[in-house]
Amino acid sequence: MIRLTTIAAATALSFAPTAHAQDTTPVQQLPTPQASEETKALDPAGFAQQAAASNEFEILSAELALRRSQDAEVRKFAETMLDDHRRAQQQLQTAAEADSVAMVTELSMEQKQTLTALEQAEESQFDSAYMSAQMKAHDQAIRLLGAYADNGAAGSLKTYAVANYPLVRTHKVRAQSQTSP
């Protein structure tokens, strides 16, 4: 499994609130989600489709958070997700084209249901529901990118997975620090 914990740890420390430093689990101690048989066997087209759906979910949920959240920190997090995942989606498109892979962007049923639940969440529950969805989405993205970085076919998509893995881990740490008391 790719170990880029030094970079991720340094980045994570820049996001960790100082008042909660003793409560924040260092990145190197976070469990690395294990790849499922499904993600281990992904072909380039399957990886591109799942990665595109992951980025699209992040973009749509961030746009929703910017419309609905009343919390400045949640809004700041959503702005970062919007910027980073739009950029990642463009990078993914370029990598897919370089590897001659058609990129289809279709959300999974689970992602669609999560967006619907976020849209329907009561105002007082939105921020916690959004951050909870972020934790889960980033866990899934970490597994996807890590598995493809380790086991994917050589090429631009694998380079994309390797390059974006630490960013997604940093997002997870940041989301985790926002949901911690």
UniProtKB/TrEMBL annotation:
Keyword annotations of the record: Signal
Residue stretches of biased makeup (Polar residues): 22-36
Annotated region (Disordered), positions in chain: 20-41
UniProt keyword annotation of Signal present: yes
Boundaries of every DUF4142 domain copy: 45-176
Leader sequence segment: 1-21
Pfam families noted in UniProt: DUF4142 (PF13628)
Gene3D superfamilies according to UniProt: 1.20.1260.10
Protein name: Putative membrane protein
